[in-house]
Automatic annotation (TrEMBL), chain A:
Residue ranges of the region described as Disordered: 127-150
Source species of the chain: Alicyclobacillus macrosporangiidus
Gene Ontology MF terms: oxidoreductase activity, acting on the aldehyde or oxo group of donors, iron-sulfur protein as acceptor; thiamine pyrophosphate binding
Protein name per UniProt: 2-oxoglutarate ferredoxin oxidoreductase subunit beta
Biased composition (Polar residues): 127-146
Domain (Thiamine pyrophosphate enzyme TPP-binding) ranges: 49-196
One biological process term in Gene Ontology: cellular respiration
From TrEMBL, chain B:
Molecular-function annotations in GO: oxidoreductase activity, acting on the aldehyde or oxo group of donors
InterPro entries from the UniProt entry: 2-oxoacid/accept_OxRdtase_asu, PFOR_II, Pyruvate:ferred/Flavod_OxRd, Pyrv/ketoisovalerate_OxRed_cat, Pyrv_Fd/Flavodoxin_OxRdtase_N, Pyrv_flavodox_OxRed_cen, THDP-binding, Transketo_C/PFOR_II
Organism, as annotated: Alicyclobacillus macrosporangiidus
Nucleus is among the record's keywords: no
UniProt cross-references to CDD domains, sorted A to Z: TPP_PYR_PFOR_IOR-alpha_like
UniProt keyword annotations, A-Z: Oxidoreductase
This protein's name: 2-oxoglutarate ferredoxin oxidoreductase subunit alpha
Residue ranges of domain Pyruvate/ketoisovalerate oxidoreductase catalytic in the record: 14-173
Residues in Pyruvate flavodoxin/ferredoxin oxidoreductase pyrimidine binding domain copies: 207-447
GO biological process: response to oxidative stress
Source organism, top-level taxon: Bacteria
Origin organism lineage: Bacteria, Bacillati, Bacillota, Bacilli, Bacillales
Domain Pyruvate:ferredoxin oxidoreductase core, first and last residues per copy: 472-537
Length: 276, 575
């Protein structure tokens, strides 16, 4: 049976606000999978908590909606147990760079094959616009009425310093570019971070579509060295594309698949080994 | 001749106390004796007093004794801290090096352990000299150590093996010349039966492999780490994988992911880790994901007593997660049970599609003990209600598979990713049969009741094991590793003509109310023995409606395991 886009939808209408960047991300994931020919039953979309976390409910493949900040541990558990399944983790900047940022560093180090799409809108949208880990310094909200005093998290640099093998960045306002980016990420044999500028049109009035259209910079090829990457990020705060790509072995995964396992000869040997 | 004795070795942590105790214990286990050992240690690698107490007997005891017959001391501190428990006329063997002093009630043998070791090749062999000295006192031939020494040092060459055996021999001869071959300390020979010798954590790891567990994400913590370290070596041989995570939150969530993917997945931790896992245990309950969590209890709260015995996580295991979920909590008491209960844990987790916590305590997890043969054929894998071909939806799938289908039992069909016609949603949000979020009152009631129905009215068979007098006046209720101390106390009381029963609890959730009531029967008094300060098991009994007019608690929360005499004295005072 030939696949069409419908196979990746499930008829459940998103409850995102009109104009939300997350619509585009959902569409991009669906298209990328279709173009890669990965059947919906062979994908698990794992999501976190927040507006972006609802994405798994609108997806036509398998979906797991986890607790706040724990997208990556759950996604890695699936990836470790099921090498035959494509795992896409998705969440927001609060989920991934705030409460769950510790997991990001270690997921990057472990390098289990999965794609992590972060819908970065620089704001806690689902709880009505509080300052988030990627809100710029000076950003005003109900939780930073005098302007955000903290330095924002720089997710790409963070991932690079932890040893990332794939770092990409996209924009909800450029679907075609994002589809190509995501296809490369899903095909990557290790952990792929894809940060997506996904505007919150209700609460974040500074980082809207117009702002990103003005600010983004299309980087055609990944940086060839660490120095080049750092220089790129210094020169262009909002670069789009595959920015970094290396090879490194992934952590061990289940070899047997989730089959019923029976006590083996090993078992008998180990028991003999405890004969004191 | 003695039918049992207690031997203890003490010294500074890191100077071979553990290996001396281990060599002694293994050698005697191989002679067919029953051996039960308990390590006293601190949360540091080098320095600080530590000791290893080994009980050797012709029948099985699963408790350490009040007294010590033979104390082996590598420093004066070991004598000062432990000589009080050495019985009248007991033996202290000490290194001449520190000019040892001991009180009059013991017999002190001063042996140049370090000097003899140096003459044999190296000062580090002083533990071997001390083993030879011990053998002489106990009337044991030194060749009982030959096999263990050979195995331990073979890789270092025959010369090292010979030097170590020489050190044992010289220690033996030295004590013999001091007149240390004492007939009253001679151990009655054992029958030579070869039995397993392991700690609870070894049994848990073996049980997990046998049960088909293949994914274990975990974070190191005392006293649980051995489970992880053991499975890191074993899982790759059977295609499984251990992931060392960044914290316990990641560990449990990763296990949930792996279990959702279809693997049998588990993690192991202790109290602090269990606290961190609570939110995710709720996720497992809400998403009906079968996952097994081993909690090796240690002294709490907070960092508490990381290397000491306690049973103070019972209430946390039952009530620690916010909201309400069905959950199962198992409480093995022996190494054999640790092994078999891992099989039960996975089967129950998959049958009822809920988290299962297997609770040990430090004494059970770390005490090496003679273990009866483990019968692999008794471990059957039952994966519960998995969707059959007929349950799956036809292609093209236009609606979600009803993963949370409302059924009479509350148990719904499970399907793993990669299955055509089984696509559904999983979420920690309240949801419909399809897994789609839904917060209406009507659906909330339907799904909450469906989940809670799974374990309603269920009592796991043999949650309470009753021994002793059927018409007991006093029934002692215990849990976990206290099984041995209680059994021994009850035996002594019965030998004095008192009517005593012992009810041991092997699962606290679902709470075995009816089994406990039957175990108490018409006893006049009930004593609940547990290692915590507030009587958690006793509180659970009243919470779940086990009624009795005279229930008393015997509590110990100083970090040490119960001694049989402590229970004996208390119960005696109840008559």
């Amino acid at each position: 049976m030939t696949l069409d886009l419908k196979a990746y939808e499930n008829g459940n209408r998103p409850t995102w606000c009109p104009g939300c960047g997350d619509y585009a991300v959902l569409k991009v994931i669906q298209r990328a999978l279709l173009e890669l020919g990965i059947a919906p039953e062979d994908v698990v979309l794992v999501s976190g908590i927040g507006c972006s976390g609802k994405i798994s409910h609108y997806f036509g493949g398998y979906g797991v909606h986890t607790t706040h900040g724990r997208v990556l541990p759950v996604a890695q558990g699936i990836a470790a147990a099921r090498p035959d399944i494509a795992v896409i983790a998705a969440g927001g900047d609060g989920d991934g760079y705030g409460i769950g940022v510790g997991h990001l560093v270690h997921a990057v180090r472990r390098n289990l094959p999965l794609t992590y799409v972060v819908m970065d809108n620089g704001v806690y949208g689902n709880t009505k616009g509080q300052t988030s880990p990627t809100s710029p310094t000076g950003y005003r909200s109900s939780t930073s009425p005098h302007g955000n005093a903290d330095e924002p998290v720089h997710p790409l640099r963070l991932a690079w310093s932890a040893g990332a093998t794939f770092i990409g960045q996209g924009f909800s306002g450029d679907i075609r570019h994002l589809v190509e980016l995501l296809k490369q990420a899903v095909s990557h044999p290790g952990f792929a971070l894809v940060n997506v500028f996904s505007p919150c049109v209700v609460f974040n009035k500074t980082h809207d579509y117009a702002f990103y259209r003005r600010s983004v910079f299309y980087q055609e090829t990944p940086a060839r060295s660490s120095a080049e990457l750092i220089q790129l990020l210094e020169t262009h705060p909002f670069p789009l594309g595959v920015l970094w790509r290396t090879d490194r072995p992934a952590a061990a995964r289940l070899e047997t698949g989730p089959a019923d396992a029976v006590p083996s000869d090993c078992m008998r040997r180990w028991l003999r080994g405890t004969l004191g | 001749m003695l039918e049992q004795l207690s031997w203890k070795v003490g010294g500074q942590q890191g100077e071979g106390v553990e290996s001396t105790g281990e060599t002694f214990a293994v050698a005697l286990n191989r002679q067919g004796y029953y051996v039960y050992s308990f390590r006293h240690f601190s949360s540091r690698i080098k320095g600080g007093h530590s000791n290893d107490k080994v009980r050797v007997s012709l029948k099985q005891y699963r408790a350490i004794t009040d007294h010590t017959d033979v104390l082996l001391a590598f420093d004066q501190e070991s004598i000062d801290l432990n000589v009080g428990e050495v019985r009248e006329g007991g033996i202290v063997i000490a290194d001449e090096k520190f000019n040892p002093k001991a009180p009059d009630h013991v017999r002190l043998f001063v042996v140049p352990l370090t000097k003899i070791a140096e003459e044999c090749g190296s000062a580090i062999m002083k533990n071997m000299v001390s083993l030879g000295a011990s053998a002489c006192v106990l009337g044991l031939p030194i060749n009982i150590f030959a096999e263990v020494v050979e195995e331990r040092f073979r890789r270092k060459g025959q010369k090292i093996v010979d030097q170590n055996m020489l050190a044992i021999q010289r220690g033996f001869e030295y004590v013999k010349e001091l007149g240390g071959a004492l007939p009253e300390f001679a151990l009655k020979p054992a029958d030579g039966t070869r039995r397993l010798f392991m700690m609870g954590n070894d049994a848990i790891a073996l049980g997990a492999v046998a049960a088909g567990a293949r994914v274990m994400p975990a974070y190191p913590i005392t006293p649980a780490s051995d489970v992880m370290e053991s499975l890191i070596r074993k899982f790759p041989k059977v295609g499984g994988v251990v992931v060392q995570t960044e914290d316990e939150i990641a560990a449990i969530n990763m296990a949930i992911g792996a279990a959702y993917g279809g693997a049998r997945a588990m993690t192991a931790t202790s109290g602090p880790g269990l606290s961190l896992m609570m939110e995710a245990i709720g996720l497992a309950g809400m998403t009906e994901t079968p996952v097994v969590i081993v909690d090796t209890q240690r002294g709490g709260p907070s960092t508490g007593l990381p290397t000491k015995q306690e049973q103070s996580d019972l209430l946390a295991a039952l009530f620690g997660t916010h909201g309400e979920i069905p959950k199962i909590v198992l409480n093995p008491a022996t190494t054999e049970e640790c092994f078999y209960m891992m099989g039960d844990a996975f089967n129950l987790a998959e049958k009822y599609q809920c988290p299962v916590i297997v609770m040990t305590d430090l004494q059970l997890s770390l005490s090496k003990q003679t273990t009866e043969p483990l019968d692999l054929s008794k471990v059957q894998i039952d994966r519960g209600y998995l969707a059959s071909e007929a349950d799956l939806l036809p292609a093209p799938q236009t609606e979600e598979f009803k993963r949370y289908k409302v059924t009479e039992s509350g148990i719904s069909p499970r399907v793993f990713p990669g299955t055509k016609g089984g696509i559904h949603k999983v979420t920690g949000v309240e949801h419909l049969e399809s897994g789609r979020p839904n917060e209406t009152s009507r659906n909330r009631k339907i799904q909450m009741e469906k989940r809670m129905r799974k374990l309603r009215g269920v009592e796991i068979p043999n949650s309470v094991v009753r021994t002793g007098d059927a018409d007991a006046d006093v029934v002692i209720i215990g849990i976990g590793s206290n099984v041995g101390a209680i059994a021994e106390a009850a035996e002594r009381l019965r030998s004095e003509g008192l009517k005593v029963g012992h009810a041991h609890v092997h699962a606290i959730l679902p709470f075995p109310k009816h089994q406990l009531e039957a175990a108490i029967g018409s006893a006049k008094k009930v004593l609940v023995v547990e290692n915590n300060a507030t009587g958690q098991l006793r509180h659970l009994m009243s919470f779940f409606g086990v009624q009795h007019e005279s229930v008393d608690s015997l509590l110990k929360y100083d970090g040490g395991p119960f001694l049989p005499s402590e229970i004996y004295q208390h119960v005696k005072g109840m008559f």
